[in-house]
Specification:
By secondary structure, this protein is an alpha+beta fold. It is built from 8 helices and 8 strands, in the order ααααβααααβββββββ.
Amino acid sequence: MSDKPSEDSSSTPEVPDDVWEQFTRASEREAPKEPSARARMVTERLRQQEARGETPESWRSGPPLQEKRRGRRVWTALGLLLALVVAVVALKPSLLPGDPFGSGTSDSAAGSPLPEETAAPTAPPSAAAPATPTLDDPFAGSPAKRWADGKAGILAPKAEAVGGRSKAEVAQALRLTRELLISSNLDPATLRGERPEAALNVLDPKQKDVLSGLKTALSEPDEKHDPLSMFTRFDPDEVRPVGDVVKVRGRMSFEAGEGAAVAVHADYTFVYPVVRADGSPEVTRTIVRRVLDVELSDPARYDITPGKLTVLRHDRDAGNSACGAHDGWFHPQFPSDAPTSAPPSGPTSDPYDRSTDIRQGQDCGTVSRV
């Protein structure tokens, strides 16, 4: 039987042979073909895995349209948020933690305490944001704002045996040095002019030139006998401290001295905020740096008092104290003061600079900041 329609049919128009053949071939190409044996096996395996919950639904189709739209909304929101953050940071970089752009104005740099000083710094501290000290914030505008408070700033290194002296003897030398610094520069009684008995008590009485000189300076101060060479003192009739915090920055080290001695080196700067004793709220600061070299010597070799310090060096440099005064007191200068003493004669210096050796006899120099 032929696939071609009967020529006798009067109801169907005649179709040319070449057209009929083209139609037949096209139908064969478009007709669904039976899957191959491999395709049937893969399909069956995927259906079985899906039934066991082992195959994600996405093997049949992509994510639902709703899920796609939700994902696009999330990414759009994140993009807008990121753009907002970038804009805010561009306007105020200090909002970022730390100081990634080296601006020196980050919250961390402005308020966090400095780490302990373990070696001589290589430069003066950077300038703080300009600010006027007040009764509520006496260290405003000062790099000392980030320094340690009082005794917490005087830390002795870990003791170790050195130069034939035991670890315990080294620890004793460090403890006595710390006591001397605290009593001489932080004790409120010493600061208001009382006799610094605790400091005098750690010094060797057999070192008569030092001890007798200090006692004379305390009782009868003059140009040659200056108690300020070892002790910090402010005349309570002139000024009074603001609060009970003195800012401290420095370091202490030790090494073997001559003759089996323990030699201790200390270098500290103290910042004292004060106001006038008459009740004026104007605040100023005096900055005092001290360098101290002492030894705890071997009593078997030297005529010394066991457990007492021998002083080898005690130097100081003061920033913001009146020139030419030899009465045993520091005299802070206030911004509103009219000149009442000799004008500064020394070079301008930064009293906060700990990167160079202490200056000698430069109290009458001009300070770049207080």
